[in-house]
Amino acid sequence: MSETQNIAVEFKRVMKSFGTKRVLNDVSFHIGQGQALCLLGRSGTGKSVTLKLIMALMQPDSGEVWVDQENVVGLDEQGLSHVRRKMGYLFQDAALFDSLTLYENLALPLHRLTKKPKPEIQDVVHRTLTDVGLGADGAKYPSALSGGMKKRAGLARALVLEPKILLADEPSSGLDRITASEIDELLMRCKTERGTALIIVTHDVHGARRIADRVAVLDQGNLVAFGSVDEVSQSENEVARKLITE
Ligand SMILES: Nc1ncnc2c1ncn2[C@@H]1O[C@H](COP(=O)(O)OP(=O)(O)OP(=O)(O)O)[C@@H](O)[C@H]1O
């Protein structure tokens, strides 16, 4: 397989502004299937916008955004829903329905978006909950879960449709170091056991150093460093170097 066939997400010369404020300036990078990319940068440097462009929740002003061999820029609704099915999204707040149990929260997208029969859905939900350590908690409502359990539940929700690409916005924010490490472990298992590509926005440098195959550092709209943790640690760019070695 050529390198191109293995690319999970690629930005080609992406520009994005809001009014007169340029948020992404000629940004290009790519990440392969089964690899983890951590997006680092100070607040307001375009990390969440990058995730939204990958999900095609917004469009760039120019440039291309490739997801699993498809340029999502300018796709029609049918094309977009096809390409979005390849992606799971771990929201900061887990995005669970409070009125549904954990089990029901996970079963819902399977009922809506697949033709799987009920017994298979039960199996998939149970397996996914077990994978994140919540196998015994399916009957609980989100309000009964701790912060760490909610994050794991959000991860299970993002994984239940078996996405090729998982996007995560600050998966360990608000968690203590030990619980944050547990989430990091789960993310790494997604990558190694499921071959999922991970794109993670994070301020947690400690976690990024463990998980990332590639690190991208955004600063004032520019991609100022891209490479392995070691490469970025030796970057000529001071902001990037400081961020990764802090
Ligand atoms: N829909 C929008 N309309 C106008 N401006 C926006 C919009 N979305 C983002 N921005 C602006 O784009 C810039 C980058 O925002 P983004 O949310 O990507 O930052 P971030 O790097 O994720 O920051 P943080 O680490 O604080 O979450 C900010 O100045 C923000 O105000």
TrEMBL record:
Residue ranges of every copy of the ABC transporter domain listed in the record: 9-245
Q: Which superkingdom does the taxonomy of this entry point to?
A: Bacteria
Q: PANTHER family annotated for this entry?
A: INTERMEMBRANE PHOSPHOLIPID TRANSPORT SYSTEM ATP-BINDING PROTEIN MLAF, PROTEIN TRIGALACTOSYLDIACYLGLYCEROL 3, CHLOROPLASTIC
Protein name according to UniProt: Sulfate-transporting ATPase
**What is an example of a GO molecular function annotated in this UniProt entry?**
ATP hydrolysis activity
Q: Which UniProt keywords apply?
A: ATP-binding, Nucleotide-binding, Transport
Q: Which InterPro entries match?
A: AAA+_ATPase, ABC_transporter-like_ATP-bd, ABC_transporter-like_CS, P-loop_NTPase
